[in-house]
């Protein structure tokens, strides 16, 4: 397929966006960042998801649009107000940029989603063709992905991203200080499945989706999900620390509120679309991944 020369990105200042922009620039692509203010640099394009505005003249001619923007789900307690913010940020942002994509017609539109789509899956492995769950995040993901479908007549990829691992942020960034002090341990029973992927492989997989003929939902996870017990034990070993301080389920529920369901819940997600398309992970196993990441 055609290699995109000019790529527009929303959410370029987030954990994934920052890494992706750096990678794409290093590969020689022209990257333009969509920002929610007047442009102050030549690589910026104005958009406003609250009003549905996108500077279509500036966006015209892009080869690809990558939409990563959205309110973080783990930054605050899930009050009714914050849950509304989580949903609306995804619906308004995705609908706005998908409408723009339908007008400027890039070769590909890549839109963020999450493995929250599957809800609680227990020990059952799920793939892209499995139905959505019935909890809050599953409902968010259903509407989120439906909004991406507004980009008619454009190859559209929906990235169902798992737990992204990098020492600079996300869950691993929050866990590292605790585990370095030797106060880490399993969360709840530790039997729940965590479907993870390194930030390094996230960037590579998005790059892969830009130039390969895949579309629809794509599970952005490692092919080897692990239980929380396996994850926390591997992290402790990588740091040469014990993992003797489990966090009881009740304490997590009190501390995190509604988001505790995501920490204590189980999602065993298999990235079948990427596997079938021939994508190769640089870091497919948790032990080797964490050894590298804790040294970064």
What's the helix and strand layout?
Blueprint (H helix, E strand, L loop, with lengths): L5 E5 L4 H12 L3 E6 L8 E5 L4 E2 L1 H4 L4 E4 L12 H25 L3 E7 L10 E2 L9 H13 L6 E7 L1 E3 L4 H11 L12 E2 L1 E3 H13 L4 E5 L5 E2 H12 L9 H8 L3 H5 L3 E2 L2 H6 L8 H8 L3
Parallel strand pairs: 1-2, 1-5, 2-3, 5-6, 6-8, 7-14, 8-12, 9-11
Antiparallel strand pairs: 3-4, 10-13
Q: Return the CATH architecture of the domain at 6-167 and 195-223 and 268-283.
A: 3-Layer(aba) Sandwich
Gyration radius, to the nearest Å? 19 Å
Count of discrete alpha- or pi-helical segments spanning 4 or more residues: 11
Shape: globular
Largest sheet: 8 strands, mixed
Distance between the termini: 34 Å
Classify the helix fraction into a percent range. 25-40%
Give the DSSP E fraction (strand runs of 2 or more residues): 15-25%
- Give the H and E element order: EHEEEHEHEEHEEHEEHEEHHHEHH
Rounded average pLDDT: 93
Q: Which class of secondary structure composition applies to the elements? A: alpha/beta
CATH class label of the domain at 6-167 and 195-223 and 268-283:
Alpha Beta
Neighbour order of strands in the largest sheet? 4-3-2-1-5-6-8-12
